[in-house]
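This section describes the prediction task in plain terms. A model, or a person checking by hand, is given the sequence of a single protein chain and must write out its three-dimensional structure as a string of tokens. No templates, partner chains or ligands are provided. The sample shown here is typical of the held-out split.
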Amino acid sequence: MEEKLFWIGILMGAHLSLSHYFKEKGKFRHDSGFTRGWHAFFAALISFTAMVLLTVSLDNRRGDVVTAMLFSARQLSYGALAGLAGAAYAYWRSLYKKTPVKDGINTSIKDDMEWSETVFSAVLLASVVMYLFVQAFKIPSGSMEKTFLIGDHLFVNKFVYGFRIPYTRTKILKFNKVEKGDIIVFQFPSSDPREFQCGGSQYGKDFIKRVVGMPGDTIEVKNGQLYVNGASAGEEPFAQYLDGYRYPKATEKIDQKDYQTYWQNRMLGKMFSEYIRDNFGPVVVPDGQYMVMGDNRDRSCDSRYWGAVPETLIKGKAWFTYWPPSRMRFPK
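The expected answer:
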């Protein structure tokens, strides 16, 4: 969302700059065709922006937002239709309602410039805050129950692991390192929109899971119990097991080296489906990557199925649940 807001802010800034340029050239001193057209263009811009943000918000509620993509074709199509409607209405209205000139500028254009400046400042500031510091996130599934319930809204601390340079995967000023037990929000580790995992394409979507394995750790699951470096992870108060049935191990005949390769290439879930839920590994977490699992262990499509999460795709750490009010708290 932050990148979407940033480019909308840039669009508004461009409109504001051009408006000042035309004002200095005296283009807005009369109720001319150019003035009416420029007012209609601003109405189109506002209508386009409002519709795109509304569509993005609705997609976000359904869990359909792809964060790796700026805008989808559907979102842009709806925005374009709204923009055309807004422009047509504004131009038609200006033909029948003449606006006066005050202080050397048409009052409708003056109002447009004030709104453009307000939106430009607010949207750009919001995008910077969301990109660098804090971002709102909605829990889309039950994979983290009971820590988070479906529909919980939380703030994600985006600077705790460092500030990411825009349009790169490079982070600077890292305040803390990712630690075992951290609940992280990350972009799903896939570069192919056609790849199916967890019942569909997860390309570019944001996930939330708990870190259970660090780089170099050997991870194994035996009859549902997590083992790290050969030792049981012990009692995990946040973990939840709802299924009394345990799937038997179905990978005995696979060579360990091939098993590791299949896992790193996100193939295990496609090959064995639920049969790796309760008996998984052992695998070694690659350098610069992390093993993550949902707290709802029997209902979580996680690193067991599609591999580890590269540090470069981690967006931040779950910080504070702010909605609903009855669940306001700092998660552990």
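For orientation: The longest strand covers residues 314-323.
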